[in-house]
Amino acid sequence: MLTCPLCASGQTVIYHRDARREYHQCRCCELVFVPPGQRLSPEEERAVYDQHENSPDDPGYRRFLGRLFEPLRERLAPGSRGLDFGAGPGPTMSVMFEEAGHPMAIYDPFYAPHPEVLSCRYDFITATEVVEHLFEPGQELRRLASMLHPGGWLGLMTKRVQGREAFAHWHYILDPTHVAFFSETTFHQVARELGMLVEFPAADVVLMQRRGR
């Protein structure tokens, strides 16, 4: 059996197979994940991301990001400082928050590889359509949580697993760069491990707050 890349449990089972790859599920945290041997290489990943045409000049993309931007902005104090983690080739979430008066740093392993920003602390961190790409989501989410000030917010956008039958026909698994799939139960497990509160403002939005002030 494979080890879960989120909680490190060895209790994993086959969840689904298709013509391209397998999907395993952890019995402890319920993460569904693609085995390491069936992931893309960094070069193959980059080739997919280079095809993205997201831009802050695209009103439709801004509306899409608004599903996370609006509920998170409502919870922030004026001037709160943030990080957009996994900003991609056309950073837009950072632009939206800066327009709202929140200074932002950006990080992306391919397009903004600035490791120095990962040694700072923030009032909030966003990761939009990112966690489904992570090979080691447990390690990355622990790191992001540790970068938050007490009371800080981690805002995520990712579509959630709704059951085995729906998964088999889900467009989300057709993207070869998507390798980790979370359910609401999975996020509750993550929040417990990290000592965070969790909310679900929309079907593909998760807000987690670090305890303390």
Automatic annotation (TrEMBL):
Keyword Transferase: yes
InterPro entries found in the cross-reference section: SAM-dependent_MTases_sf (IPR029063)
Coiled-coil residues: none
Keyword Methyltransferase part of the UniProt annotation: yes
GO MF annotation list: methyltransferase activity
Transmembrane segments: none
Gene Ontology annotations of biological process type: methylation
A Pfam family of this chain: Methyltransf_23
Keywords: Methyltransferase, Transferase
Source organism, top-level taxon: Bacteria
The protein's name in its UniProt record: Methyltransferase
